[in-house]
Amino acid sequence: MKIAIPVAGGRLSVHFAHVEEFALFDVDKENKTIVGQETYPAPEDHSPGALPKWLIDNEVTMVIVYGMGSRAIAILEQKGIKVLTGAPSEEPEIIVQSYLSGTLEFGDNFCEH
């Protein structure tokens, strides 16, 4: 499983589509461990469908975000990428470790789109 976290200033970004970078985590969900982590600059192409393609090309199976519009959620889920919204703006590794341990608390999906 590979989880993507949109990052700005070293923390989960509140703006999914316009971020500095993405932290990608390879995880072993069964053993609840992070087995790899890489950070990539966000793609420069913001045309419709570009970000889902970039995520798929990087073998992402889940994104954890602060907020995301319903249309973007639908597009990603149609591509087989699970979307979890309402995550706190914490350091990406803390978010993933909390998710794996079952302690990540989610709030509302804060998005105006």
Would you spell out the secondary-structure blueprint of this structure?
Blueprint: E1 2-8, E2 11-12, E3 21-28, E4 33-41, H1 50-57, E5 62-64, H2 70-78, E6 82-84, H3 92-101
Parallel strand pairs: 1-5, 5-6
Antiparallel strand pairs: 1-2, 1-3, 3-4
What is the rounded distance between the termini? 28 Å
Largest sheet composition = 6 strands, mixed
What CATH architecture do you see? 2-Layer Sandwich
User: What is the CATH topology?
Assistant: Nucleotidyltransferase, domain 5
- The arrangement of helices and strands along the chain is EEEEHEHEH
Mean pLDDT: 90
Level of helix content? 10-25%
Would you state the CATH class?
Alpha Beta
Q: How many domains make up the 3D coordinates?
A: 1
Q: Structural class, from secondary structure content? A: alpha/beta
Query: Segments where pLDDT lies below 50 for 5+ residues?
Result: none
Report the count of strand segments: 6
The Rg value, from CA coordinates, equals 13 Å
Summarize the structure.
The chain has 3 helices and 6 strands; from the N terminus they run ββββαβαβα. The chain is an alpha/beta fold and 113 residues long.
Word description of this protein:
The chain is of the alpha/beta class. It has a single domain (2-101), classed as Dinitrogenase iron-molybdenum cofactor biosynthesis domain (Nucleotidyltransferase, domain 5), CATH 3.30.420.130. 24% of the residues lie in helices and 28% in strands. The chain is built from 3 helices and 6 strands. Strands 1, 2, 3, 4, 5 and 6 form a 6-stranded mixed beta sheet that branches. It is globular, with a radius of gyration of 13 Å.
